[in-house]
Design brief:
The protein has 347 residues and is an alpha/beta fold. The strands form 3 sheets. A 7-stranded mixed beta sheet has the order 12-11-7-10-9-8-15. A 6-stranded parallel beta sheet has the order 3-2-1-4-5-6, sandwiched between helices. A two-stranded antiparallel sheet has the order 13-14. It is built from 10 helices and 15 strands. The radius of gyration is 20 Å and the shape is globular. It has 2 domains: 114 residues, NAD(P)-binding Rossmann-like Domain (Rossmann fold, 3-Layer(aba) Sandwich); 171 residues, 2-Layer Sandwich (Dihydrodipicolinate Reductase, domain 2).
Length: 347
């Protein structure tokens, strides 16, 4: 007996949302892309036509559809909380792109909505689904390398940004560094206790005034005593470069030390390797695996791999980084006094 495919609706079909929509439509056998919505009606219509999905005229229209059981939210982060709460309160399972919210209060409201609606909520930290990171987690959990002591992480985007100085480092912390806050928690299995962040303008326009920092170094201390050193840099020019090393008592695990392919070309001008231009290329398989796993868990109401509490913890660390940059000292990471329970399975 063939199981009915799960209807997926995608909210926000810019670069990230479109990739989710394409995966639901073309790469995940158990999913069916039912509808898309974007505040840009023309964009929604174009994507809908190209991927063969209904383009809804409003968010309410998409959420009221009975054939949409999973909602993927990939809109700008300022809309995440209200859109997620609207979907969760209607009993939809929600895959919410990071950051979960702009404040811990927003995160708590989203978690409460999931509990009230008895809905599944997963946060879009796709790196956990990357095969190399997943294998590193298994290795660390096995104890084969002994106690994990130190994480060193690099996140370099090829393109630089033109954000005004008034934006500070909030964008960087909530959009980029937040991945490494989550990944270090995931790999170490421990909570972040404090963050000390320093940042500067380090690009070819650094002599011009009015730019937000495009580089940050984050010194992280974990509750159990381990440390992490996280670099975030926008404007590397040469490639999209994401690497992580976990130094343990009896060895070290490295992820991301490989180029895009094993091909190396040598000429009189030197050697060249094929590097990744962006995150969609580097984590293409991870994005597919993430959505496939979430959709496949709908029928049995399987607990999500990345919970609302995981999303909240990453936001808390990012906000501590922002506060540290502004204060010039290490800042403690806010904790959850009474963690809300994850949504219970439907009876």
């Amino acid at each position: 007996m063939t199981r009915e495919r799960i209807g997926v609706g995608v909210v926000g079909v810019g670069m990230m949302g479109r990739r989710h929509a394409e995966n639901a439509a073309r790469s995940i056998p158990e999913a069916r892309l039912a509808a898309v919505f974007d505040a840009d009606r023309a964009l929604a219509g174009r994507v809908g036509r190209e991927i063969d999905a209904d383009a809804c005229g409003s968010l309410e229209e998409l959420l009221e559809r009975s054939d949409v059981r999973v909602v993927v939210i990939a809109s700008p982060r300022r809309f995440h909380a209200e859109q997620a709460i609207g979907a969760l309160s209607r009993g939809k399972d929600v895959l919410l792109e990071k950051p979960m919210g702009l404040s811990l209060e927003e995160c708590d409201r989203i978690i409460a909505a999931a509990k009230h609606g008895r809905s599944r909520l997963q946060i879009g930290f796709m790196r956990r689904y990357d095969s190399a990171y997943a294998e590193a987690k298994r290795l660390l959990s096995s104890g084969a390398l002994g106690q994990a002591l130190l994480v060193r992480a690099v996140h370099r985007d090829r393109e630089e940004t033109n954000l005004p100085a008034s934006s500070g480092i909030t964008e960087m912390m909530l959009e980029s560094t937040i991945h490494d806050f989550d990944l270090s928690r995931f790999l170490l299995g421990d909570e972040i206790a404090s963050v000390a962040t320093t940042a500067a303008v380090l690009c070819h326009t650094r002599d011009a005034h009015g730019h937000a920092p495009n580089a940050a170094l984050n010194s992280v201390r974990f509750a159990g005593g381990a440390l992490a050193d996280i670099e975030t840099y926008w404007g590397a020019q040469y490639a999209y470069d994401v690497r992580t090393e976990v130094v343990c008592a009896e060895g070290t695990a490295l992820v991301g030390q490989h180029p895009r392919s094993q091909l190396a070309v040598y000429t009189r001008d030197g050697a060249t390797r094929d590097l990744f231009p962006g995150f969609l290329e580097r984590f293409a398989d991870a994005y597919r695996a993430e959505l496939s796993d979430f959709v496949s868990g709908v029928a049995e109401h399987r607990p999500p791999a990345v919970s609302g509490l995981d999303g909240r913890a990453a936001v808390a660390a990012a906000l501590a980084g922002v506060a540290s940059y502004e204060s010039g000292k290490a800042e403690a990471v806010a904790t959850t006094a009474s963690p809300p329970r994850e949504p219970s399975p439907r009876r």
